[in-house]
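Input record, target 12 of the design panel.
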């Protein structure tokens, strides 16, 4: 069964064709990041306009690369929530148009469920149930993936998402947007023991809170600037990255311990972080659980993950009619 996936929740216009949830026939991502970088973050109206401009071409490319026509796909999967509302609406309405034109089922996909499915093409052996840590620019949550379509959130961020904290700290250190990858690079050359950063506490031990940690780093930078002291940027990046990764890993393994899950998956843009990938893999070996991490190309927003999840949603009968609407916030 071939599913056409469409993703426009933020600043990537993406379309992909995936067979049986596992085999990527094509995946096209048109990133707008260079334009948003000028403003230091995503400008919602610009994002919507760029999606509207390039979605047809991205979709045509995805179909062509997969050597298939709209008639040959078995469903149109689209991210309907959560995300920037104007951006989501472009994808949802485009998917509706294709669904009417081709007479194919319309499959709404939750963006975070889509991120979880980013592991399926690379790891054919991964099947629910398992634990999944989704860490992106907008979300940080530990989820129990009970079946392909039934998720329970065990812990979530109470304030900033992990990627958001990376981006804000990166900005304070003078790196371009989105700064996660620049912190990752700087951290390689830094000594993480030079700066000591706070570990935030949360009432639910599986929840996250990154706002205090982010503020502590920003204050440290401002204080150094005011005193005219030179800051070791690489060391601060290394300390910050290590602290975030340690918090994420500790809570994920705590969740594995509490639930008894032996399979854990990582996903989302921050899953591209080299420190997090190494730490999670290292600790996994220590405690004997199996870890699944998507290839770098599927960590950030893409439509292959939406098509993969769409396949399982279709099997579960989760289709929508043409009254489908987008939603900026929507719980799993
Ligand atoms: O999943 P994603 O592409 O979009 C959302 O759904 O938010 O995630 C984007 C986030 C950004 O905050 C970006 O800085 C972060 O992922 N990111 C990284 C790395 N690569 C991307 N954070 C840390 N280290 C990286 N290597
Ligand atoms: Zn995402």
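The sequence produced for target 12 reads:
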């Amino acid at each position: 069964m071939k599913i056409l996936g469409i993703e426009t929740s933020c600043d990537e216009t993406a379309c992909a064709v995936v067979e049986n949830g596992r085999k990527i026939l094509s995946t096209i991502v048109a990133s707008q990041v260079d334009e948003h970088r000028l403003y230091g973050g995503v400008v919602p109206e610009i994002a919507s306009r760029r999606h509207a401009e390039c979605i047809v071409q991205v979709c045509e490319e995805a179909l062509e690369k997969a050597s298939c026509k709209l008639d040959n796909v078995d469903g149109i999967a689209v991210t309907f929530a959560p995300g920037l509302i104007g951006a989501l609406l472009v994808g949802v309405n485009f998917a509706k148009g294709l669904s009417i034109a081709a007479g194919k089922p319309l499959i709404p996909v939750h963006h975070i469920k889509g991120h979880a499915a980013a592991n399926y093409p690379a790891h054919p052996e991964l099947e629910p149930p398992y634990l999944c840590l989704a860490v992106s620019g907008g979300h940080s949550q530990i989820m129990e993936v009970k079946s392909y379509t039934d998720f329970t959130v065990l812990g979530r961020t109470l304030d900033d998402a992990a990627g958001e904290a990376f981006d804000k700290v990166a900005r304070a250190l003078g790196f371009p947007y989105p700064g996660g990858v620049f912190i990752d690079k700087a951290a390689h050359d830094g000594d993480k023991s030079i700066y000591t950063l706070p570990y935030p506490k949360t009432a639910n031990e599986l929840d996250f809170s990154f706002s205090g940690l982010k503020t502590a780093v920003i204050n440290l930078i401002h204080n150094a600037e005011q005193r005219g002291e030179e800051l070791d940027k690489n060391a601060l990046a290394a300390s910050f990255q290590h602290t975030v990764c340690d918090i994420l890993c500790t809570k994920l393994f705590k969740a594995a311990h509490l639930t008894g899950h032996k399979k854990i998956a990582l996903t989302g843009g921050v899953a591209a972080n080299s420190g997090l990938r190494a730490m999670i893999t290292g600790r996994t070996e220590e405690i004997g659980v199996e870890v699944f991490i998507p290839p770098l190309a599927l960590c950030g927003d893409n439509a292959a993950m939406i098509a993969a999840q769409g396949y399982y949603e279709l099997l579960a009968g989760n289709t929508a009619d043409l009254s489908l609407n987008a939603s900026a916030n929507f719980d799993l």
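Strands lie at 2-7, 12-19, 23-31, 75-81, 106-110, 130-135, 140-145, 151-156, 263-267, 290-292.
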